[in-house]
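REQUEST ID: PR-0412
SUBMITTED BY: lab tech R.K.
PRIORITY: routine
TASK: structure prediction, single protein chain
INPUT:
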Amino acid sequence: MLARTRLLTVMGAGGVGKTRLALEAAARLAPRYPEGVFCCDLTPIAEPGLVPGSLAAAFGLTPEAGTAALRDRLGGARALLVADNCEHLREAAAAAIADLLVAAPGLSILATSRERLRLPAETAWTLPSLTPDDGLELLATRTAARAPGFRIGAGNLGALEEICRRVDGLPLALELAAARLAILAPEEVARLLHDTLGLLTGGEGVPRHRTMRKALEWSVRLLELQACDDLWQLSVFPARFTLDGAAAVLDAPATEALERLAALSDASLLVSEPASPEAQFRLLEPVRQFAAERLTQSGRTEAMRRHAQHVLSVSEWVGRNVFGVRRQSEALDSFELHLSDIRQAVEWSLLHEPPWAAQIMGWTGFVWEVTYRVREAVGLMRRSERHAGSAVDRARLLVRLGSILDRLLDDDAVQDAFRRALEAARQADDPRELGFALAFVANNPGPGDEPLKLIAEALSIADREGDRLLELFARFLHAQVHGDLGHEEECRVELEKSRAIAQELGEEFLLSQIFASLISGCLRDGNNSTARRYLRMALKGAGEHPDWATTGALVYMSAALAARSGRPEAGLRLVGAIKRWQSETGLSVYQHHRASKDYDAMSTARAAVTAVKAEAALQAGEAMKRAEAIALARSLVEERPERPDDHLTRRELEIARLVASGLSNKEIAARLHRSVRTVEGHVERVLRKLELRSRVGIGTWAIERGLLRARCLDSATVRSADWARLRCTLLKLIQKSV
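STATUS: complete
OUTPUT:
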């Protein structure tokens, strides 16, 4: 059927095996889809507005990327998407799937749902129950897995066939029955099923739907009272959960909670999924929905309260470990695992415990930014902010909100958020949050020297508290303040200090942004060799964390460097890849590292090749995936290009040394007995060959290559700014050699 339609919806009752069949079919058919097979489980999604982002994330796009991003991601290439469990969001899923089919002509979609999506292009097929023979085989296999001595024989065949008939061949119902056959005789199980399912006469709905519900009711009736209660309470988890989460919701020690989970697992009502660093559990979706109905009918709310409290605890742990410690990957993994819980807990808290919502969003705020769920986060934060129960909660939330709004380039809203954050932070008794507020406010231009005063106060707090993470943030933002004020040397010094702290703390996310700023400065100054060295270090970890914007900036800078180093076509391929990258992520790679005309990779590379070659290189780049673009960038910066000075004539080398010594063109002309016009021509050729912008760049280049001895530096003839730059470079080289 998939060969004849682009949208196939597999329908059927809960427990009939739609998901298992779809995933198995996708695995077997993978060779037909060269662009790949992608899967999206919509089960934990509660809000219709989150459906498009969830589908986009399945393709490796940011959750806020649009259909245009998918068009650029797939083009006309053949790919398959499995959209699982669409029924509870049918209209939203149908609309999103319709958009995907239009955007990507080569995409096929295999959906599972309890009803049709009702799209014109849809082919709907109802998955039948197992045949009697297949049902009997599954029942025997699953029972033998629990009771190795179990066999089908003349004595129990009739009872087993009756069981298969009673549950209408539903695989999940047979799994439930197998759990009981491990401890009860087949005849007894058949009799119990007859007592329960025999009530199915008449009534509304699809018979298999009613059969599944009755099978669940029968299975639950055989549980002890404690196990039933546990099942209802665990239904508060919208997706997978950990042992710690179960213990929190069940209000029991971990060892006791594990025993209670085992009881549900033995009854085939709970699935255990080994994972690293800790096991995960989940209720099968038909079971979870059934249990959630029972919990709602009971009118009990303590399970939802304990769930929200657990999410608040997890959120605080994530917030404390996402920056400044070597557990960033664990924190990000924990956020992704608990994302559905966080969404649910925030919505519940807004109705029942509003201050908790502000705390959850405050603690996780930076992680929403790192994983680029910025628009969703802004909505939740704005709804939560007015409910903050304390000044520190409000300050924490507003700082994160301002940082996210900065990603969206909403300057007025950014300044308002940071201003209110600072007001709240000054009322709170939390040095770190006050320091954060001061540093972020300073990074938004203020009158006179106010930004520098705010940064100084933040650094003073960091020093007093011994808070290295706060110092890292403050120095990095201090560098940006200096950059905005045109203090290039001070900016570079602060960036180097920030880099040292980030490497000390193992802080990868901020380190990549620091590298991007350093490289940007080097390219702007024409210091290609140092830019290459920084890029080598920065690209080693690129792609291993989700800061797509900064990683994209690093790739763009690699393109600029390639264009300057005699590899214009390779640079244009990277520029093309960045174009695709921007469409996939939905953001400009230069929202924070804004492209400078001084190192416009596109213009530099185009000027070096024919129009035909340039267009071909750009098109080849647009066909590259992000991982391929990063790999190409790494290979380009690892290459050792010819030294630019190999192409300088002896006279040009002499001119370069004299320029680096601080002599003017007139003074060089007098020393070499040449006309000023001739010297000017030599200087222009040196700048062009070395791909530099200024005479200061020539001085730095000469010192780094050992072409200029210290005694050649005549401080009387070097302007103070130039002398400071050259002196700093020379000191760095001396320190490195020591």
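NOTES: The two ends are 71 Å apart (CA to CA).
REVIEWED BY: pending
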